[in-house]
Amino acid sequence: QLQASGGGLVQPGGSLRLSCVASGFTFGSYDMSWVRQAPGKGPEYVSATNSGGGTSYYADSVKGRFTISRDNAKNTAYLQMDSLKPEDTAVYYCNAQRGLAYFWGQGTQVTVSS
């Protein structure tokens, strides 16, 4: 399973770091991603990294502001979010995938507001 945390209320321009702790499977063999869903909108694929952490992907909307990373020794993935904007407000979910096998975290709320 996956346990996401680190969300909260932050002012525009602020930063948050989300964490996603894995248990019950071989974390280091899975690609990790973060997906968000804003109120009234569909899910948006935000960022992803491969199992070794050497390759990353970012949506255009977050490129240059968000950084994905992982620590396979700690079974944890991170999403560092800087220069946050009100439009980043959403529930953020972490996902682990290897082939047809996948796990989802429960989501953590991020609210960017003054």
Helix content: under 10%
Q: What is the N-to-C order of secondary-structure elements (H for helix, E for strand)?
A: EEEEEEEEEEE
Distance between the termini: 34 Å
Task: Determine the structural class based on helices, strands and strand pairing.
Answer: mainly beta
- What spatial form do the alpha-carbon principal axes imply? globular
Number of contiguous helices: 0
3D structure, described in words:
0% of the residues lie in helices and 54% in strands. With 114 residues, it is mostly beta strands. The relative contact order is 0.33.
Give the structure's gist in a few sentences.
By secondary structure, this protein is mainly beta. The chain is 0% helix and 54% strand.
Keywords:
single chain; 114 residues; mainly beta; 7-stranded mixed beta sheet; 4-stranded antiparallel beta sheet
Please give the structural blueprint.
Blueprint lengths: L1 E4 L2 E3 L5 E7 L8 E7 L5 E7 L6 E3 L7 E6 L4 E6 L8 E9 L2 E4 L3 E5 L2
Parallel strand pairs: 2-11
Antiparallel strand pairs: 1-3, 3-8, 4-5, 4-9, 5-6, 7-8, 9-10, 9-11
